[in-house]
Amino acid sequence: MSWLSPKGEAWNFSDQNTTVQSTGDDFSLGSVPRSKRMMGWLSITNITFGIATAIFYLQMGSVMALQFGAMNAIISAVYAIVVAGILGTIIAYLSAKSGMNVNLMSRGGGFGYIGASLTSFIYATNFIMYCALEGMILVAAVHAFLPTIPEWIWILIFGILVIPLNWFGIKQLDKLQKWSLPLFFIFLVAAITMAFLTPSVYGGAFWTYMPDGLQVGGTALLSCISMQHGIMGLTPLLASDYARFLNPKDTKFGIFAIGFVPQIFCFGVMGGLGIWFGVRLGEANPGVYIVLLLGVWGVLFTMLTQIRINVTNIYSGSLSLSTFFENVLKFTPGRHFWVVVTGVSAIVLMLGRITDHLELLLTFQGVFLMTWATILVVDAMVIKKIMKIGPGYYEYRQENLFKWNPVGVAALIIASVLGTIAAIGFMGGFLKSTAAFFASILAAVISVILAKFTNGKYYVKEEASGIDKEDYIR
């Protein structure tokens, strides 16, 4: 059977391994056909720079350096690059092989179709939350420059602006990120130059800065790692939304570029610059020091970076909501509908002052996302590949799936609950700072035990035929 896309292009869906419903060129409800995986690794890596260039990473670096010392912040950044890079590379590989994002991979990757729906919904709320947080950074910067205009007006303006920028899917995202990336680097170089010309408030080399009473390592380092956990689970999972379009000939090199380059830029370049800016200027908020350094151009710089990241947040959030409501309620209005819902939800959170609850949100988010990513990686690399349990491909079609697979669902619930308890502080100071890592290890062990105990019984009702052998991960 073939349908016509909105662009008048025929899509063939006779192959069982392609999606039955898609929106434009996004294939939000099924696998991307191999004939549609035509994007080069450079284009996809460029799209992921939308999140990598967020000012939020500058702020994280500045806050960690000023509170816990520059060297502790630098060590935690290296840790984040390595862990998130490994997870991101594996997930990008799985996505490129199967043509699916993490929402769809979760169905056949240990969760079942209802179990995966719950992860999709929580994943969507994370993107909505991020959209609101990034939006508030922009609103604060513009409002500081033009205080006569109420904040709620800026919230509406910038909240609505990102909705039409998402209307035409991944190809529009690629174009937006391509033309805006050079502008970003021009503004960034200008800010660095102006900071060099501004006398430093700290007399020594920036990496030697250490608040009184602290030292390299110990509680200060663990505190930095804990802060990194709050955001480092997102970028590996995000890679799958775009790696599924990767041209098969680019897979070998492309998965490393998609997996590691965004992490290097997020935590290494942006986080590192945040450390330098924070120590040199004695200010943790980039919304303040970028505007002080560049004036009205600083406002434009902030606007550019936050629009870039929020376009990406809206796109991924809309895909996750689409998956959830299609699975649970059979409600399939199309991705455009969910783009609007995601954008409006972010506006509501901004109006509700989401930044007042930032620490609690990042704590839960870090535990959940790291745990989920770990389960997907362990399911593919250990349970499917080494233990030979379950099918060697990802099944996403409901008629072939059980509603629940205890392997992933039980592991996620148990590990997330215990990880959150640890993060709150009920299991001691060490586990409080390493709660996300603790939850990830716990989830890995539980999922392997449950897979062995159930012997893959709940992965698929029956093995499917007609799956392209190139889409097998085993």
From TrEMBL:
The subcellular localization recorded is:
Membrane
* Main localisation: membrane
Q: Could you give one GO CC term from the UniProt record? A: plasma membrane
Is Membrane among this UniProt entry's keywords?
A: yes
**Can you tell me where the transmembrane regions are?**
38-58, 70-96, 152-169, 181-202, 214-232, 253-276, 288-307, 337-354, 360-383, 404-427, 433-451
**How is this protein situated with respect to the membrane?**
Multi-pass membrane protein
Name the keywords, alphabetized: Membrane, Transmembrane, Transmembrane helix
GO terms of molecular function: cytosine transmembrane transporter activity
Q: Which family does it belong to?
A: Belongs to the purine-cytosine permease (2.A.39) family.
Protein name per the record: Permease
